[in-house]
Write a structure and sequence with these properties.
Elements lengths: L1 H24 L8 H51 L6 H22 L6 H16 L5 H28 L5 H16 L10 H23 L13 H16 L5
Length: about 260
């Protein structure tokens, strides 16, 4: 999170420069024009808090949707494993389901934080479909299970596309720009009258800058569903892997 350090350093530099300039060239506080400046500062603060709250809601909604999509994909994988388990000759399909799940956890997740996806799980999914199509099930029940498995593969393929879309989402630049501009106004407007800083005003300035920094950093940390605070983890996929072991106990794989 190097950008956080850059943001903090820039903010501190701005504050120090403002204190130095006002300390040398500022005038004594005579309350002249303070009412209009206070009104403008309060208005900027209201806009900042409004944008901050709306951005937080959008980020939280994106996080919840991504988590639900991951859970749905894991459930489809588990149901697919149940479908192939009773088919005697489908042991290779079981291995491919396990391989896809492991690749999604080990390869996809580290890349999704950077808005990317590994091509290997997608190739495994294609190979899995081909393997299922090559099965020659005996009996109506086995043919129904084969068709159900193909349907589940389609579900997983669609879920993977959705997960890729979720990984490429983030807070729109409009909100970032509005949040930054309104935050800068909240910080800078009280300095507009050019009053020489006092101990009380310095404390107020530091609190104001701290509140703006915390708000911006918080939003940036939750702006991506697969990185930062509260990022979606592959727990649902790991739970599916445990489910596979339980299904194998019910339907042992045949060589």
């Amino acid at each position: 999170m190097g950008w956080i350090a850059v943001l903090v350093v820039v903010s501190v530099a701005i504050v120090l420069i403002a204190f130095r300039v006002l300390g040398k060239r500022g005038r004594e506080d005579d309350e002249h024009g303070s009412s209009s400046v206070d009104f403008s500062a309060n208005l900027a603060l209201a806009v900042y808090l409004l944008v901050l709250a709306y951005a937080a809601v959008l980020c939280r909604d994106a996080l919840s949707v991504s988590e639900a999509d991951v859970q749905a994909e894991a459930e489809s994988l588990t149901e697919m494993y149940w479908s192939v388990a009773p088919i005697p000759e489908a042991a290779p399909v079981r291995a491919q389901i396990r391989q896809y799940t492991a690749q999604s956890v080990d390869l996809d997740w580290p890349l999704m934080a950077r808005n990317e996806m590994s091509p290997l799980p997608g190739q495994t999914l294609m190979d899995m479909r081909a393997t299922v199509l090559r099965l020659r099930p005996v009996g109506e029940e086995s043919r129904n299970l084969q068709q159900d498995t193909l349907d589940r593969i389609s579900e997983v393929s669609h879920a993977r596309i959705v997960r890729s879309d979720d990984a490429s989402t983030g807070l729109e630049n409009t909100f970032v720009i509005l949040l930054t501009l309104s935050g800068l106004l909240v910080i800078a407007l009280p300095w507009a009258p050019g009053v020489r800083p006092t101990t009380t005003s310095i404390v107020a300035d530091l609190v104001r800058v701290g509140v703006v920094l915390i708000g911006v950093c918080f939003i940036m940390l939750i702006s991506h569903p697969f990185s930062g605070l509260g990022a979606v983890e592959p727990d649902a996929f790991k739970a599916a892997q445990r489910q596979y072991d339980q299904i194998d106990g019910q339907f042992p794989a045949q060589p």
